[in-house]
Amino acid sequence: MAWLVVDHVIRVDPELMALLRSGTKTLGQILKGNKQIMATLDELIGKVDEQTGQVASMKTFIAGLEQAVKDALSGVNLPPAVQAKVDKVFGDVSKNTDEIVAAIDNNPDTPPAP
């Protein structure tokens, strides 16, 4: 039989004492797991922030490149087939960029429960 001293001596049942020890151990494991989860979430937030910056940079680069091509071709009449290819390239790149941005924007703030 174990003894627990508070302000006075209390006799504690061995099964209760074992249960308290087990609960304390489990609580310690939960707290440790919580720290790991928070570190993982902080890492994910950092990666999302980095990707958001990369997407913004990519959009700026694409817009600048498109403008540079337009400026370079200003006054130049391209054959319709060539113009169609140029238009397709920039249209596809813009579409892909928009899809990436939409995927990031539509990503839930919290992951789904397992």
Describe this structure in words.
With 114 residues, the chain is mainly alpha-helical. The protein has one domain (2-105). Helix content is 75%, strand content 7%. The chain has 2 helices and 2 strands, in the order E-E-H-H. The protein has helices spanning 14-72, 80-105, and strands spanning 2-5, 9-12. Strands 1-2 form a two-stranded antiparallel sheet. A hairpin with a 3-residue loop joins strand 1 and strand 2 (9-12). The two termini are 42 Å apart. The mean pLDDT is 78.
Which features characterize this protein?
114 residues, mainly alpha, two-stranded antiparallel ribbon, 2 helices, 7% strand
Beta-strand percent range: 5-15%
User: Level of helix content?
Assistant: over 70%
**What string, H for helix and E for strand, traces the elements in order?**
EEHH
Largest sheet: 2 strands, antiparallel
